[in-house]
Automatic annotation (TrEMBL):
Keywords: Methyltransferase, Transferase. One of its GO terms (molecular function) is methyltransferase activity. InterPro entries: SAM-dependent_MTases_sf. The keyword Methyltransferase applies. One of its GO terms (biological process) is methylation. CDD domains: AdoMet_MTases. The keyword Acyltransferase does not apply. The lineage of its organism: Bacteria, Pseudomonadati, Balneolota, Balneolia, Balneolales. It comes from the Bacteria. This is Methyltransferase domain-containing protein. It comes from Fodinibius salinus.
Length: 344
């Protein structure tokens, strides 16, 4: 496997427990005080739940303009892998934006277009500004994309030491890094079939982003960076993986909602296949809430290149239960549902 490491030192003395800063591109949040931003729904009796009780998930069907243009040009539906490639490149653009600067530039473009009586140009600039405002709200104000406090709460109290972690559909690998900080000394394998995820989404993840984790030597919190972690990135289709049942944790973030019902069992089998006996499957999906529907509507040109559902926690948990998992923890974080499961 190809091990990815950083050679430069990135330790920042201001990154102490309790630190918080809103940068131009993202938030850094090392606060460990309440609220933990996790709403527990583990009380649900999954064995008595049925689809008559919960209905089926909401399907997002407002497609990206790039998807529609591709399909017009090629005369066929965009393949799943092609859609994932387009999504990764499009979504990655958002993380690179200096949002305060670009908002100012968009406002200037609007005024310039209006003064020039360029109504079409003004309309495009307004649309761009709205998208920037939505992204700013979601990523820099609410910190709902990475959501470190919610994910730390979801991942806490797992009975593992120095775990072997497999991340399916890893994209930028954020959640594996958070797990490596909370359960240090382990090893993570990130898998994605788009090489761009290895080279750019993970490869260019901010080196100075601090992860709040644990120090086994003292029992206290400790700050980690990507360079502190033992991570390999494998570019492959997760269906082709040859691992055995050798991982303490198999995690996916926003994966199973891309599988229509007739393929959901395959998605869950991918998690089961590589787990050690007693290992944990960790899954999240985007929440079915008004905020999420608005986000995928306004941001459709960045986000909507393939099949996607929005679920509530009961729907997500019922899928897991029907596919042979016992649910140890279930609940909501800012933008996602989250499950901690074991094979039944």
């Amino acid at each position: 496997m190809d091990s990815t490491t950083l050679t430069n030192q990135v330790k920042d003395p201001k990154h102490q427990v309790g630190y918080f800063e809103r940068l131009a591109t993202h938030v850094q949040d090392l606060r460990n005080t309440a609220p933990d931003l996790f709403e527990d729904a583990s009380y649900i009796d999954w064995s008595s739940l049925s689809w008559d009780d919960v209905n089926r998930p909401y399907k997002v069907d407002r497609w990206a303009e790039g998807k529609k243009l591709w399909e017009q040009e090629h005369g066929e539906r965009m393949p799943v892998k092609e859609g994932w490639k387009h999504f990764n490149r499009s979504f990655h653009q958002l993380f690179q934006k200096d949002i305060p600067k670009e908002k100012q530039e968009s406002r200037a473009d609007i005024w310039q277009s209006l003064l020039s009586m360029d109504i079409h140009g003004a309309g495009e600039a307004i649309e761009e500004l709205v998208q920037l405002l939505v992204w700013n709200k979601v990523h820099r104000v609410e910190d709902a994309i990475w959501d470190p406090r919610g994910k730390r709460a979801l991942f806490e109290d797992l009975d593992v030491e120095k775990p072997e972690v497999l991340f399916l559909g890893a994209a930028d690998g954020y959640e594996a890094m958070q797990l490596m900080a909370q359960y240090p000394g382990g090893h993570a394998v990130l898998v994605d079939y788009d090489k761009f995820c290895k080279t750019d989404r993970f490869g260019k993840f901010p080196a100075q982003y601090p992860f709040l984790g644990n120090d086994p030597a003292t029992g206290n919190h400790k700050v980690y960076y990507r360079e502190d972690m033992n991570i390999d990135f494998v570019v492959d289709d997760i269906r082709n993986l040859k691992y055995g049942k050798e991982f303490d944790i198999v995690v996916s973030i926003g994966l199973i909602e891309h599988f229509p019902d007739e393929y959901k069992h395959e998605a869950f089998e991918m998690h089961r296949r590589f787990l050690k006996p007693g290992g944990y499957a960790i899954l999240t999906t985007p929440r079915n809430q008004l905020k999420s529907k608005a986000f995928y509507t306004v941001m459709s040109d960045y986000m909507n290149y393939g099949y996607r559902e929005l679920m509530d926690i009961r729907q997500m948990g019922l899928y897991a239960w029907e596919n042979g998992f016992d649910i140890l923890r279930a609940g909501y974080i800012k933008a996602h549902n989250g499950l901690i499961c074991k094979v039944r």
